[in-house]
Amino acid sequence: MIHVFGDSFSDEPVSDEEPFRWISLLREKYGVVHNHSKGATGPQYSFREILSVLSSSKVKKVVFIMSDRNRIKFPFIMKDDHIPSAYEVVNNAPLTDEEMYLKKWTYEISMGFKMFETEIKYLPFFIILLLKHFSERFGIKILVIPAFNSIKYNRAYFDPYYLNDNDFKVCNFDLHGVSSLEFKGGEIVDHIESTRLNHLSKPNHEILFNICSNFFSDTTLVEDFHQNLYDKTGKILKRFIYE
């Protein structure tokens, strides 16, 4: 049994019929997979979820997708899909019509990010430390996979990879980077993005599964993500069509 926590890189529909999704591959190998993921949420959501699970059930295997540290769910946010947009307000980035109400809360949003700037910056590291504690205290194998480049710190002081051992691992890649590098030039093409599951194409779902399998079951499957699957217009490159 595996418990998965995260954002849109790991969430799935209630009735999922896509056998190549990396979560589906985990389910095929390990049987029961409890997926607690929810798109657009941040590390705080996933951490609360794992706390609730630890208090109510026996957990032995965990995949924790570390989402963007700036995804703070302010109390006035109407929909979870709008959580990432709160930070966009601070950066004066464009909002959709449905998200425009956030402009009314610009002062509160800016104040929140300013007041807790340092705490937010190091939030992923604090969560990693607590996950490491859970791993050692309760004998849980935990695989932490960054969704974004949110755990890059001055490693002389904050080195999440220092904590890695046979039962605990922080991966040294981020899924958003993997997703972008499927395209030549690193720019995601919208009409292809709408067809991908969890922002990844089929070959990289398989690689992500391989990484989980190697950690939990000591297999030796290939862990190198595929790059340049599409050109800058979204056209599939011929060398991958027949693989």
Write a structural description.
This protein has 243 residues and is an alpha/beta fold. The chain has a single domain, classed as Rossmann fold (3-Layer(aba) Sandwich), CATH 3.40.50. It is 37% helix and 9% strand. It has 9 helices and 5 strands. The chain has a 5-stranded parallel sheet with strand order 2-1-3-4-5, with helices on both faces. Helix 1 packs parallel to helix 8 and helix 3 crosses helix 4. The longest helix has 22 residues. It is globular, with a radius of gyration of 18 Å. The two termini are 31 Å apart. The mean pLDDT is 93.
In short:
The chain has about 240 residues and is of the alpha/beta class. The protein is built from 9 helices and 5 strands.
